[in-house]
Amino acid sequence: MKIFFVLISAFTVMQAEVRLAAIFSSNMVLQRNCTVPVWGFAAPQETVSVSFNAQQQRTAADMSGKWMIKLSPMNEGGPFTMTVKGTNELLLENILIGEVWICSGQSNMSFELKKTSNGPKDVSEALNPLIRLFTVKRAVSETLQTDCKGKWSVCSPEEAGDFTAVGYFFGKALQESLKIPIGLVHDSWAGTAAEGWVPKEVLEGDSDFVPILKRWNSDVAEYPHAIIEWQEQMPKLLEQWKADSITAVAAGKMVPRKPSAPRGPGHRDTPTGQYNGMLYPIIPFAMQGVIWYQGESNASRAYQYRKLFPAMITYWRSVWQQGDFPFYYVQLPNLDRQPEPSKSGWAELRESQLITLSLPNTGIAVTIDVGDPKDLHPVNKRPVGERLAIIALAKTYGKKMEYSGPQLKKFIIEGTKVRLTFDHSENGLVVTGGKKVIGFVIAGKDKIFLPADAEIKGKTITVSHKKIKDPVSVRYAWADNPACNLYNKTGLPASPFRTDDWEEVTFNKK
User: Fold this and answer.
1) What percent helix, strand, coil does the chain show, rounded to 5?
2) pTM exceeds 0.90
3) 3-state secondary structure of 503
């Protein structure tokens, strides 16, 4: 009995010890020029004090044991220490104040620096004490979690190699330009769809999203039988996949997707799973904005994504309570999935991403020219991160620079020709790889597209085809892996687009 009471007492003391949420640790970066929430856990109603950079705040934990204080806005600088006192005392060291960005999405955001095209050299040069890195450990949950796992580290070859390459190149470009500390919070998971990064209320609140939940519930119900069947068929399926992969490589085509086990409880595809387990625990960590690279897993439902993606951004902004913070994202690159240019879910997904620019304070990094036709995970990640950084430097930090490639502004049908006018083309339009513009197709009322003759005239392009007397629609780079070469004079590529709104392959797919 005595041993029992000793154990209970020890457990009570352990529970009473104040601790910080994992997102707060030595080596972190706190956001400058805004209120900075700091929170953690303690015994219910325990008094907690936080001292940092000449500020002292005191509060009491609520009945659930959670506490939060808010530091007043601070200028960039450091290093500083933070002291947190309750029944125990915590000391955090080497803290900087600067700019914090969340780096989220799926596999191409998760893609590690050491695996990039120039990985060994980039990793060896990744020594910058003014850049700090935090990776949220993967977690999927059907309920909201109060904390995550991870810790801040100083950017070094030992730490940067496993970090998101896109995030690293983005942060490196910012730090070199702004000359202030940069904090990068990597919060992504390969293969995840956008519905994993929103709470259930978003999915339940729109009839276009409800099928996602119904499909998931059906998969969970069928899982006990499906997993047994999978285990029986797995050897044969894997053998067939290996044979198909060898054939694809020999033909110079993309390797087919490896067979995967059926979805069930705890699966990566759990709707709301990443929001609950990975994002919610770091809200409302003070930050400047978000960079996002995702969409591959939603390409089969690209039309739905034109609503789902903006809904996700809007919800994140509402719960973070930092207003319409910057949200900059990567448009999907070229990938050789299908040969038919007018039947591309990949192109439709790019269009949905382009449409999302209607939200305030958003920006899109076009990467139609830096993908790998044969690889879902192109290794050339430097231009991706740097193009995101260009957007941030221009739109967030006020640098006078062009941050976008040409984007269609309007089109006018002039007899047998269509004249296109573009934004972000103030200094004119140019092509690469020769003098001829490629990538344009044109169609009449029959919706049959033919390769178009395109001529640049200053900031406009005139498109036509001798067989089409009454043109109706023009498309540019509308394919999984289009041949295209339109840029502005700053070297940024034009976004794929179409002038029509005809129903395509993912229309009404939910």
Assistant:
1) 30, 25, 40
2) yes
3) coil
